[in-house]
Write a structure and sequence with these properties.
Layout (H helix, E strand, L loop, with lengths): L1 H16 L7 H24 L9 H38 L1
Helix pairs in contact: 1-2
């Protein structure tokens, strides 16, 4: 369910940044926001009234997994930017 919420958020960002001309308020803003809110409510209820062990650890495992993914995204983007910088520098040297 968390993945669905992240896809809802990503669709809003994608259509606002990349496909602005095709952006439809109902389809690309209101529907994803409603879906994200519904999933957030379920996730909050999992935290308020936890399931019996070991199922009560699920929200925390999912949260840790998301944080790990964000950290990896940051690290990989920095590495890719460094590779692009080196690649551009080597191209400039070879063309000179």
């Amino acid at each position: 369910m968390i993945v669905y919420a992240l896809v809802c958020i990503a669709s809003i960002v994608f259509f606002l940044r990349k496909r602005r001309a095709q952006f439809n308020i109902l389809r690309h803003l209101i529907s994803p926001v409603i879906g994200t809110i519904m999933i957030a409510v379920v996730f909050v209820f999992l935290l308020i009234a936890p399931a019996p062990p070991p199922l009560n650890t699920i929200p925390f495992v999912v949260l840790a997994w998301i944080v790990l993914g964000i950290v990896m995204l940051y690290v990989l983007r920095r590495r890719l930017a460094a590779v692009d910088t080196v690649s551009l520098a080597s191209k400039e040297e070879s063309s000179s």
